[in-house]
Design brief:
With 484 residues, the protein is α/β, with parallel strands linked by helices. It is built from 17 helices and 13 strands.
């Protein structure tokens, strides 16, 4: 049987069609490996063994009957715990949803089911996707597969760690301010945050609706293109889903030409190479720039002048939306009902017991910035700043097609290092947050050869940010970087 460690979607698809192995055999091999490896990593909250076996058997039958099988038929995936799979637990790693069973499939799940994929289990995350280390999960710690004393990043840390530790071929995560790209960079996986409106949010537990997007973790950029092609599409069930998501760009995504890639102009923004960016990360990103340049593309220095306001802007807009989205968890429709004397007492007790510290902090912040008297000073102002940040990108894209930046200011940090200092935790998303504010697509790709820290090799990522609907540009450039 094929060893799991270098198994990509592409390779496994070829192996399945060549009947080198069955999806069921591989699915069982993944479960055996998860049993061995996951006690240390802690990527999965629970496994969907029955569902996975049923899905693998169905895929094997389809392949045996030579029913035309798509690239994802029979491929084992891990799913972040805030994406609904009908009949399975989904808790967003929160105590308030500990016993919640999803009543329907998220649109992305329905699409992957149709494509014949296998769902191995649900992965750990920061509670309601709020965090950068997966330490705010109510249930367990996830460790970085490259160094167990370090975090995997977050909030989709479980999905990143599952792919990096070969406990799934690919995974789904969600990205509101960097939660796919940052953990991908920390764990050495490829992570794609698609254009806002290109992948349906229906069935994704909302954190901040104007920023959230679902996207894939994969081992290669080629696989990220395969996943994105499967996930994208207009969805009437999501009011912010765009009809443009149905444009046929499969060929550009899956078979980029070198000629096209070479015609791309790549911008390097001065504001991303600042104090606070660790010199060893700057060095690795410079290496990536040199490799990209060697493909024959033009590299230009550019400026995104409002970058320094992005973090403050995000920490007003995001909590405002969080405070509103998390209102529904009130102990009646969701949550274990605490014994209470009155309705308001019930709300108070249930939310007090059900939410963790970070969720409470953001609900308070968000309620404050939306409250009368403060709305104009904070929320309305932040919306204007958001506009300026988006405008910066629009201006830059008059000169370039793709923007290349670091993903994180440092490599994966130590477990516990930032838990008592939320501001330093928030800073780890400084390079990813502007992208969500502007609704752009971006991908985190591991720089070749990691960084040696304390005798361990830690991965470092670089980020390619595309124009709206420019996934083919960043995935094309990434695929050629990968081939170097
Ligand atoms: N780490 C960021 C935050 O805490 C981003 C989270 C995310 O993208 N879901 O909000």
């Amino acid at each position: 049987m094929h060893p799991l460690h270098d198994l990509t979607i592409k390779k496994m698809h070829d192996g399945l069609l060549a009947k080198e192995y069955s999806s069921l055999e591989m699915t069982q091999a993944f479960f055996a490996w998860i049993e061995k490896r996951d006690p240390e990593v802690g990527a999965y909250l629970s496994l969907h063994k029955d569902l996975a076996v049923r899905q693998a058997e169905a895929a094997d039958i389809a392949i045996a009957q030579d029913t035309p099988a798509g690239m994802l038929a029979g491929i084992p995936l891990a799913i972040k715990d805030n994406i609904l799979i009908e009949g399975e637990r989904a808790s967003a790693a929160s105590k308030i949803l500990e016993n919640y069973t999803a009543a329907y499939d998220a649109t992305v799940i329905a699409k992957l089911k149709k494509a014949g994929s296998v769902f191995l289990g649900r992965t750990n995350m920061d509670e309601f996707a709020m965090g950068s280390s997966t330490e705010s999960s109510a249930f367990q710690l996830t460790r970085n597969p490259h160094d167990p004393t370090r975090v995997p990043g977050g909030s989709s840390g479980g999905s990143a760690a599952a792919v990096a530790a070969h406990m799934a071929v690919a995974a789904l995560g969600s990205d509101t301010g960097g939660s796919i790209r940052q953990p991908a960079a920390f764990c050495g996986a490829v992570g794609l945050k698609p254009t806002y409106g290109s992948v349906s949010r229906f069935g994704l537990m909302a954190m901040a609706s104007s920023l959230d997007q679902i996207g894939p973790f994969t081992k290669t950029v080629e696989d990220a293109a395969i996943m994105y092609q499967a996930l994208r599409g207009h969805d009437p069930m999501d009011a912010t889903s765009s009809p443009r998501a149905n444009d046929d760009i499969a060929d550009a995504l899956l078979h980029p030409t070198l000629e096209r890639v070479r015609s791309l102009r790549v911008g390097i923004p001065d504001e991303y190479f600042i104090e606070g960016l660790a010199p060893e990360i700057a060095q690795k990103v410079e290496e990536a720039i040199a490799s990209i340049k060697s493909l024959g593309v033009e590299i230009k220095r550019i400026s995104l002048p409002h970058t320094k306001y992005a973090l403050s802007c995000y920490y007003i807009v995001m909590p405002a939306e969080v405070s509103s989205n998390l209102e529904r968890f009130e102990g009646i429709r969701y949550g274990s009902r605490e014994h209470a004397a009155s309705l308001s007492d019930l709300y108070r007790k249930d939310r007090e017991a059900g939410f963790g510290t970070e969720s409470k902090r953001r609900i308070l912040l968000g309620t404050f910035v939306l409250s009368s008297g403060y709305y104009d000073a904070y929320y309305a102002k932040a919306q204007k700043v958001r506009r300026l940040i988006a405008q910066d990108f629009a201006n830059a894209y008059k000169e370039v097609d793709v923007i290349l930046t670091p993903v994180t200011p440092t490599p994966a940090f130590k477990i516990g290092e930032k838990m008592s200092d939320p501001l330093s935790m928030y800073l780890s998303d400084i390079f990813t947050i502007p992208v969500n504010l502007a609704g752009l697509p971006a991908i985190s790709i591991p720089v070749k050869g990691g960084l040696s820290v304390d005798g361990k090799t830690l991965p470092v990522g670089f980020q390619l940010i595309g124009k709206h609907w420019g996934e083919a540009d960043i995935l094309g450039l990434g695929q050629y970087y990968e081939k170097l």
